[in-house]
Amino acid sequence: MNVPMTLVKELREKTNVGIMDCKRALIKANLNIKDAEKVLKERGLLKITDRLERNTNEGIIDAYIHGSRIGVMLEVNCETDFVARTDEFKIFVRDIAMHICATTPVYISKDELPQSFIDEQLEMHVTKLKSEGKSDSIIERIIEGITLKTLKEVCLLEQPFVKDTSKTINDLLNDMMMKTGENISIKRFTRYEITK
User: Fold this and answer.
1) How many domains are contained in the chain?
2) How many CA atoms lie within 13 A of 150 on its CB side?
3) Cα–Cα distance between 196 and 145 in angstroms, integer?
4) 176 and 82 in one domain?
5) Which of 48, 61, 128, 185 has a Cα at 20 to 30 A from 37?
6) Domain range holding 178?
7) Residue 189: phi, psi to the nearest 5?
8) What is the pLDDT of residues 91-125, one digit of tens each?
């Protein structure tokens, strides 16, 4: 089912839930916003949004090295030292670091994307599509697809998890918040790679 980006955006603004979760909820609710909100509530995702205002002053910094040529330093924060010391939290952080090593994201979330980057991408693709003789309605649909693809390429939270591509990194983050009952945030990362 083709889900209009405008509906996804509207549901995301109302609920503060990730793009892919909003899209799945809209599909399940036959593109009805109110029903999609109910779907998100049933899945427990709306409870998570209540936690997002709580401070995350604890956590861990982890490093992941792959084959001595690629390395990642990652900081993930949570609310309490108790959660930060659990094996489950440490495994979660290690999985995220390994994912960053494999996929090369540039930003954590789409909120970090500079407007200049978005404008440049849109202008480039619209110009190309117009030169190919595409109509404005077709261009709008193609641009929605290109936007989602670009987000998946450069934004960590939008990327499908390398160990289970049916889930995004945002899905994993939400699952961890549901398990721990705490707000968890991926604070920052740095990826290093030796190039030839």
Assistant:
1) 3
2) 16
3) 34
4) yes
5) 185
6) 58-109+155-193
7) -150, 160
8) 999 999 999 999 999 999 988 888 887 778 788 88
